[in-house]
Amino acid sequence: MDIAKKQELKRFINELKNIRGRHTELVSVYIPAGYDLNKIIAHLQEEQGTAKNIKDAKTRGNVIDSLERCIRHLRLFKKTPEHGLALFSGNVAAQEGKVDIKIWSIEPPEPLNMRLYRCDQRFVIDILEDMREHKEAYGLILVDRREATIGLLRGSSITLLTDLTSGVPGKFKAGGQSAQRFERLIHGMAIEFFKRVSELCNKEFLPMKNLKGILLGGPGPTKEEFQQYLNNELKKKILAVQDVTYTDESGLHHLVDKSADILQKEGIIAEKKVMERFFTILAKEPNKATYGEKEVRRVLDLGAVELILISENYDDKKMQEIETLAQSTGTALQLISTDTREGQQLRDLGGIAAILRFAVGNYE
Q1: pTM exceeds cut of 0.90
Q2: Rounded Cα distance, 50 and 44, in Å
C-alpha cells in the first residue's frame, strides 16, 4: 500500500475510532471480495427482523434505521468492489434522545477475505487497522568477524532486531608456529560466531511468512564466508550481497541505500530520492525550493509549485487544506513517512516543503 492510501485509511479509521454508541447499536459490516451483495442485503434484512425484539425502543429504532441505511447504500453498487467493502452505520447524535444516523464505507486497500456483521457499542475497525501495517519485509544482515547486526526493512522503516559482538581478537604480530596456532584459534572463534549469528537469523527470519528477501552486507570477504553457515531456506532469500564498511546500526541504512536497485519498488527508495532532490535544489538553487507552511502557501498561491512534500505526521486539517490548494493549481503532492532520516529532516523543517517550477524570490 502506498503512503497516500495509507493516509486515506488512517483518516477513515480516526473518524470512526472515537465514536461510541450509548448501547450496542453501532453496525459494522465487512463484505469479502467477490461476495454476492444480494446475500448481504438479505442478511441485513434478517437482522432488521431480529432487531425488532430489542426491548429498549430507542436502541431498537437506532439499530433498525442503521441497518436500513446500510441496505440502501449497498443497493447503489452494481457489484462488490474489487477488494470488498467495509460498511459502518449508527446514531452519532451528541445529545441524548436525538437521532443522527450516519453511514461510512470504504473499499479496503487490500482484498478482504472474511465476512462479518456486528452490532456493538464501538465500530469494528481492527481489521482495517491491521491493513495499515506493512506486510512484506526484507531481512538485513551485517556481519564481519567482530560484530554482527540484524535488522528488518518494512515499508519505509528500518528496525534494529539485534546486534552482537564476537570477542574475536584482532591481528597477531608474532611469527612462526605461534602465529599459525593463534590464527587457527581466531578462525575457530570466527566460525563459532558465524554459527551464533546464523542461529539468531533463523530465530528472527524463519517464522516470518511475509519475508520477501534478505540483504547481506559487511566489509571484505567475511560476509561471503558467513553465507555457508546460513540456513538453506534463508540462503535462497538473499537478493544482494553488498560491501558495507560499518556493521553497526548505521550500517543498516548504508545496506539499504546500496540496494536501491533491488528495492526500487519499495516506498523507502522513492522517498529518499525525492527528498535528496529537494535538498540538492535547496542547496544549489535556493529560489526553486522552500519549506514551512507560510512559504509553501505563498508559492502555491503564485502557481509556482511543481511538487509538495508533506510529512505523514503533519496536522490532518492543515494537510487537507494544502491538498485542496494543490488540486486547484495542478500541483503534485507526495506524502513522506518519518521512518527515514530524510523524513525526519522534513519533519524538523516544519513537516512541509516544496519544489518549484520556476524561481521565486523571498519576501522583501
Answers
A1: no
A2: 10
